[in-house]
UniProtKB/TrEMBL annotation:
Residues covered by the Tyr recombinase domain: 1-92
Superkingdom as given in the UniProt entry: Bacteria
Name of the protein: Tyrosine-type recombinase/integrase
Disordered: annotated segments: 1-25
GO molecular function, one term: DNA binding
SUPFAM superfamilies noted in UniProt: DNA breaking-rejoining enzymes
Record flagged with keyword Magnesium: no
Pfam families in the record: Phage_integrase
InterPro entries hit by this protein: DNA_brk_join_enz (IPR011010), Integrase-like_cat_sf (IPR013762), Integrase_catalytic (IPR002104)
PROSITE patterns for the chain: TYR_RECOMBINASE
CDD domains in alphabetical order: DNA_BRE_C
Keywords: DNA recombination
Length: 109
């Protein structure tokens, strides 16, 4: 058995060469038909970038993707982990309270 080389292709073509991006997209689309799943190669790229950035550093993810600037990787590829809380309920309460105050002020005139 041959020793594994970390530079070997993960999904080589039948000839052992890199697959063309268009063929990868076509094969992925074909594999997903009828499954209700909609995943693109770009989704995989974002997932890997996020995992590398979280597991090591943003600089490593940037280098892996071949970006010159960490801000590009951060903005477009790494999933944010700090999400603002859902404040719709609080805003609805403030609007309702303000409306009630406005109505009661108008009744006193």
């Amino acid at each position: 058995m041959e020793a594994l080389n970390p530079d070997d292709l993960v999904f080589p073509s039948t000839k052992g060469s890199p697959r063309s991006p268009g063929r990868v997209r076509d094969q992925l689309r074909e594999a997903q038909q009828g499954t209700g799943i909609d995943v693109t190669p770009h989704d995989f790229r974002r997932t890997v970038a996020t995992q590398v950035a979280r597991g090591t550093t943003l600089a490593n993810a940037t280098a892996l993707l071949g970006h010159a600037d960490e801000s590009t990787t951060s903005r477009h590829y790494v999933q944010r982990i700090h999400v603002a809380p859902d404040l719709r309920v609080v805003i609805d309460e403030v609007v309702a309270q303000t409306s009630e105050e406005t109505l009661s002020e108008g009744k006193g005139e």
